[in-house]
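$ run holo --ligand "ascorbic acid" --emit tokens
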Amino acid sequence: AQVSPEDQIEYRKAGYSFMAWNMGKIKAQVVEGSVAYDQQQVAAAANAIAAIANSGMGALYGPGTEKSVGKEKTRVKPEFFTQKEEVAKVAIAFNQAANNLAKVAAGGDKAQIAQAFGDVGKSCKGCHDKFRMD
Ligand code: ASC
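-- output --
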């Protein structure tokens, strides 16, 4: 089924928001210790992030999604749509980091999870710095 440009922007932002919520849970339980560590919750959060990372979100950057549409605002930079090789690079880095986090989270070693979590965060930032406005 075809997804309208407006819906593509809505769906991709929903994916990032859902990942951010799950990143926040891992951060609180593993990095900050502000919430008690629960291995199942952290593994579930890591699996959710990896599932979205592996879901083919590139399909949500179709023609007409370069700019905000209707009520859906986007901060994507124009370069995202021309620098395909660079986009592929940051996307693969993110994918690998997310898959590694899921693998490590299943093992339950907090120090390893913290490291893998940091690597995912770096891969998020790698794309933001190149392809996200502000
Ligand atoms: C998050 C979140 C991001 C990334 C980024 C990492 O939890 O919402 O966008 O991590 O801040 O640098």
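-- notes --
The first helix runs from residue 5 to 32.
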